[in-house]
Amino acid sequence: MTKSELRKKYKALRKSLSLDQIDDFSLAIANRLLQLDIWDKSFYHIFLSIEEQKEVNTEYILNILAGKDKNIVISKSNFEDASMTHFLLTDNTTIRKNDYNIPEPVDGIEINSTQMEVVFVPLLAFDKTGNRVGYGKGFYDRFLSECKPETIKIGLSFFEAEEEIFETSEKDIKLDYCVTPNRVIQF
């Protein structure tokens, strides 16, 4: 399927999920993450869920990271140039939703992309070789290209892999893992 077809399909599938299903699937994803050998790192980048888009609820993962006393990094989006600025999440961080309902830090301690060791990546769909489809603005591909090559990229998905995503380009950054409620896939 093409990226636009996949976006349409998975937005509709997400829309059909109940709040209880989202909660159950999100908890299952967080529990599956505990199976990965990633917990010896220091800097973890995570997205804050857009409830209106029925994204994976990352609150469970945030609790794991906080319980393990990790440096949690969240981003603020610049829609003029599709870039992201990254901030350390602290007790003093003020979070506000932007015009697209994305929860973002107002300001804080800025963290460079090269410091990220693990990045939890939002997505709409992914395929069996680690390609992903997001909302189409390129924020994460741009951000991931700034990270060190050894940065671990983990997609989070309610749904299983598509056979193949067509229209991929050299700018698309592949995932190392994708975690669903039922399994961990390594690419």
UniProtKB/TrEMBL annotation:
Catalytic activity reported: (6S)-5-formyl-5,6,7,8-tetrahydrofolate + ATP = (6R)-5,10-methenyltetrahydrofolate + ADP + phosphate
InterPro entries given in the database record: FTHF_cligase (IPR002698), FTHF_cligase-like_sf (IPR024185), NagB/RpiA_transferase-like (IPR037171)
An example molecular function term from Gene Ontology annotations: 5-formyltetrahydrofolate cyclo-ligase activity
Entry EC number(s): 6.3.3.2
Keywords: ATP-binding, Ligase, Magnesium, Metal-binding, Nucleotide-binding
Top-level enzyme category: ligase
Needed cofactors: Mg(2+)
Family assignment from sequence similarity: Belongs to the 5-formyltetrahydrofolate cyclo-ligase family.
Descriptive protein name: 5-formyltetrahydrofolate cyclo-ligase
Lineage of the species this protein comes from: Bacteria, Pseudomonadati, Bacteroidota, Flavobacteriia, Flavobacteriales
